[in-house]
Specification:
Radius of gyration: 34 Å
Order of helices and strands: EEEEEEEEEEHEHEEHHHEHHHHHHHHHH
Largest sheet: 6 strands, mixed
Distance between the termini: 72 Å
Number of strands: 14
Structural class: alpha+beta
Number of helices: 15
Helix content: 25-40%
Strand content: 15-25%
Length: about 400
Amino acid sequence: MPPTKIKNAKVVSFNVAWHSFHFNVPNFKDLPTTRDHYVETPLFTCNGHEWDLRIYPGGDDDAPEGFVSIDLFHQSEGSITANYEVMIIDKFGKKKEGRKTTDSFEGMGHGFGWRNVILRSDILDESKNILDSDGTLTVGVSMKEESSTVFVPKNPLLKTIRRMFLGEDTADLCFEFRSADAKKGKKKRAKILEKFHAHSLILKTGAPMLANLFDLDDRNYRNGKLAKATITDVKADIFRHLLFYVYGGSVPEEELKTHAKDIIDAAYRYSIVNLKLEAEAAYVKSTKITMDNVMDNLLYADAKNCALLKEAVMNFLSANHYEASEKISFNDNVPEHLMKDLLVAVGSISNSKKVAVDELSTLSVSDLRRKLAEKGLDVDGSREAMIESIKDNATDSD
């Protein structure tokens, strides 16, 4: 016989310690009393896991004759230890019977319970006041909410700073984007196309090079007037991404992919290092290195200090060195230090000869950056600079 499903459930109480649910079982006296037939409650969530109750009107297979059994089943992946109580609630909303314990649930479908929660005859006894006037039985479960899962709001500082983005009421700085100068021989004032308001305190801390565009010692600024700076070397939409990042925001993945180089250029120009690294990673992920673009990418990576992109280029060249030697001209435009990087790349993937090398020299750019981040060091720079920084820090620690 398939289990009986019940649909209604409600949270009846909540505090820091316990979370309680009540379920109504309609027409309890008419339910089958076949052994191991159960009524199944809807799923409920507590401590980040899903659960349900199973009520056996005629008891489970091992229950004493005449007793109702109740089981709690874990319905989520993973394991959890739960401190819980199952209850029979009378028609006045008070606990009539209860069973309390702590069990460890391993995986989905793992359950524990009691075979002898209450006699079925006691539930049907009108003098016990358990069933309501419609013959509905109420079964409850309470579970202790573990401290690790108690909801505590995060520090709101980051959201507060993001809400300040472009806020004119509190801003003391303004970036302006103007139209191109009028044609030669004509005097016409350039039109302001767009304004981005900002806050000196945030820029001084998060983007000092942007803050330095303003004369913060100017008398008018010190008298409460808005300081202004004109941006001519970055497009307005790219600058908006840049500024929002400084305020704790993020650039959507699709925007990073579409405008990767523009964002790299702007972030490099104004030393917004982490944004440059994000855009660089997006560019490497979305760009296929070929013989046609490999040198352009190599020179670009070197010019913008993009170690991850340079590594991708070097790996391509080392994996295709025979073809590259025939098709690519390493002329005077290629700096000498790039030749050394290429040799390192070839050596790191070659298994033909084993030679003693510095372990750091064989690490990927991502691994080097990870080591630097773990030590609280600057993650931007060439491969050589990152390796030296790690070595210097290790020496200082000794």
